[in-house]
Amino acid sequence: MFDFVDHLKKQKFFGVVVFGSKRHLDEIVPGKNFTLRAFLKKNKIKYYDSEDINKDKNLEKEAKDSLGIAFGAPWIFEKHTVSLFKKNHLLDFMGIDLPRYKGGAHYTWQILHGNTTGCANLQIIHGGITTFHKGEILSREKFLLPKNLQTPMDYFDFISKKEIEFLKKFLAEMVNGKDFKTQNLDETKSSYFPFLNTKIHGFINWNWSGKDICLFINAFDKPYSGASTFLNGKKVFLKNCRLFEAEEQYHPFTSGIVVRNDKKNTYIASIGNLLVVDVVLEVRVGDRFVTPHSYLDDALSFSAVYNSKGLKNKKTK
């Protein structure tokens, strides 16, 4: 949304108004050193900090004769909210391969699955929970991702450039009066993957294969804090995992043991592979990374629910 608003502002053709929540307005813009709120203030872009868009009285005056585009909105738009716009004039921008990746934490799930398909969509919002993410597609572009992308930030950096070009193209087509043809989603190919929270879901299961552990560590890498586990009773985060062939046939009992350590890398035995991660300063050869089963059970049983302020159902553990 930052890139899109920045583009619109520079065009000086469109009036721009932003409705955001504290959760997003006060986050650092990826790759920048300022928040979205600071950017909007500096560039004198009108915005509203809205805890619940469905109860925000400012929307009625702003929605009239406007095109609304939602980017990762923290609210589910109710039908009466959608009715404030002209028919089909409230759209949801979805940077995923619909309907295969409904839900949240899209890049993390894609990395875990080895999925290298990118997609940008503008989807009509009809309002209400029963129609959530089920609207017709107004515009869509699909593309392949380079195989060397490893972390969510890698995905974001590459895909965001594709997405902004997609949005610029849509604007140009709209200004030129294109007659958009809608496309229904094929729900027989639909899948849903839930929202995640790195601190709760990001615990490493050392009983997995080395390949699966490496994918997992990278899936919670930048911009997140990394995949977590314990070393000598202390919680640590692992990042930048590389997969090497096992130097011998490691028994499952060996998984998690630090077999080698140097100034840059920590080498960890796993089932089928040798894992290499950024150095963990407290580690010594022979130490073992361990994740208690209680943390793994909590990760599987916890469903992250977010609202306009952030994680709604926080755990205290």
Molecular structure report:
- This protein has 317 residues and is of the alpha+beta class.
- It folds into two domains: 192 residues, Rossmann fold; 104 residues, Methionyl-tRNA Fmet Formyltransferase, Chain A, domain 2 (Roll), CATH 3.10.25.
- Helix content is 27%, strand content 23%.
- The chain is built from ten helices and 17 strands.
- The strands form six sheets. Strands 3-4-6-7 form a four-stranded mixed beta sheet, covered by helices on one side. A four-stranded antiparallel beta sheet has the order 11-14-13-12, with helices on one face. Strands 10-9-15 form a three-stranded antiparallel beta sheet.
- Strand 3, helix 5 and strand 4 form a beta-alpha-beta unit.
- Helix 6 runs antiparallel to helix 9.
- 28% of the residues are buried.
Short synopsis of the structure:
The protein is α+β, with helices and mostly antiparallel strands and 317 residues long. The protein has helices at 2-11, 22-25, 36-42, 58-63, 79-82, 106-113, 152-175, 198-201, 210-219, 293-301, and strands at 17-20, 46-49, 68-71, 90-94, 102-103, 117-124, 137-144, 192-193, 227-231, 234-238, 242-245, 258-261, 265-270, 273-278, 289-290, 306-307, 310-311. Strand 16 and strand 17 form a beta hairpin.
